[in-house]
Amino acid sequence: MNQKDVKVSFYLKTNETNAEGHCPIMGRLTVGRSECVFSAKMLAPRSLWMSGRVKGKSAETVEINRRLDELRASALAIYREQSAIREQVMAEEVKCLLLGMAFGQETLLNYFRSFIKHFEKLVGVNRTAKSARSYRNAYEHVAQFLSERLRLSDIPFSALDRSVVDKFDLYLRTERRLAPNTVVLYMSRLHTVINKAIAAGIITADPFAGYEPPRPERRRRYLTHEELRRLMTTPLSVPRLYLVRDLFLFSCYTGISYGDMCRLTVANLETAEDGTVWIKATREKTNVEFEIPLLDLPLHIIDKYRDTAPDEKLLPMYGNAELNRGLKHLAAACDIDRKLTFHAGRHTYATEITLSHGVPMETVSRMLGHSRVDTTQIYAQVTDNKIGTDTQLLDRRIAERFTIAI
User: Fold this and answer.
1) Which residues, other chains included, contact 164 with Cβ-Cβ below 8 Å and sequence gap of 6+?
2) I need a surface site. Which of 39, 98, 127, 332 has the fewest CB within 10 A?
3) How far apart are CA 105 and CA 118, in angstroms?
């Protein structure tokens, strides 16, 4: 293959014309029968574009044409160098080198793979297998996006910008048809990887700057006082639902997640000098310690099932899927008109059992085993009752100060 078989041309992406009438300049690289496109990272006025160049003699026009000439010359030089050492050179390989993806320069997917490899080493220490799986899934979607939408096998960090982020978001929503919360998760995973690259000095500008994904309206995930009352008092026709209910109520009144409940043993119970019984354990997800003083209801449930679970486990646990199926029937029996999952117990403890009764956020965070208070705020949806109580307390304090002043 000789150099005549290599062509570099430029065109405008007219479907992305901005308010000033400028369009992104795209390059088309042909090497033999292989072809690929790339962004020239420049804008040009649509009205002045002709035959792959900008008309005119203004400083802006001269600069754009100069940079286009440099890109063309660089692509041809790269092809000459590669063809001197290999018989067959593809357009994609020339483009990768042209965009700074040569050996020794960091690219997104390569860095993402290194991130996952390091993350997986921490599984069981302070990371979970579930989180590692979500990063792997995010990586697969990024790789598919680059291949299907941008025709790239990888992309250099220098080529990442806000438009790539927005296109990936749109790709997940329209072509992969992922649920909104899943889109938010995968975009967050990608942003975490990019933030690591920024911290390492690989990239200086954050391509996520200004990006805010549309989020679905949060649904209430905790049980109200009335729903809890119905849950505890409604007679059940299916015997196995009594254990489902007890396990769920235990989570509602302790805030302990399903995975951590499965790991609880009798050894996690401690009795203080004042007679208060505590559960002291470490969260499987974050390896953060938590301590919870037990209320009467969870104590009753522990006594009810004492010595019924193997290996000195605290409670006889159903599988997660079976529990959630049971909760579906339980919600119907108790006239709770929405989807009920076991994790709602943790939300209920944070919102209805603790915060709504004046327990400070920092204390709730410690009992839930969170490493940061802002994580607790996700669970802690403030109820109308809590707002009313706080407002009445404020009114009393203002009245007291006014009286003293008089």
Assistant:
1) 150, 155, 207
2) 332
3) 19
Question: How many Å separate Cα 234 from the centre of its chain?
Answer: 38
This prediction's pTM: 0.55
Residue 82 has pLDDT above 80, yes or no: no
Q: What values do phi and psi take at 24, rounded to 5?
A: -65, 140
In the chain, % helix, strand, coil (3-state, to 5) comes to 55, 15, 30
Give the residue ranges of DSSP H helices in 86-155: 91-98, 108-121, 129-148
- DSSP H or E stretch at residue 34: strand 34-45
Q: State residue 147's pLDDT score.
A: 84
Q: Which residues pair with 271 in a beta bridge?
A: 277
DSSP letter at 4?
Answer: G
Confidence of residue 402 (pLDDT cuts 50, 70, 90): very low
C-alpha distances in Å from residue 75, one per residue of 3, 31, 33, 100, 150: 11, 10, 16, 11, 19
Helix (H) or strand (E) holding 269: strand 269-271
Give the count of alpha carbons within 13 A of 104, CB side only.
0
Chain-centroid distance, C-alpha 380: 19
CB 382 within 8 A of CB 347: no
- Average model confidence (pLDDT) for the chain? 85
Give yes or no for residue 387 having a pLDDT over 70: no
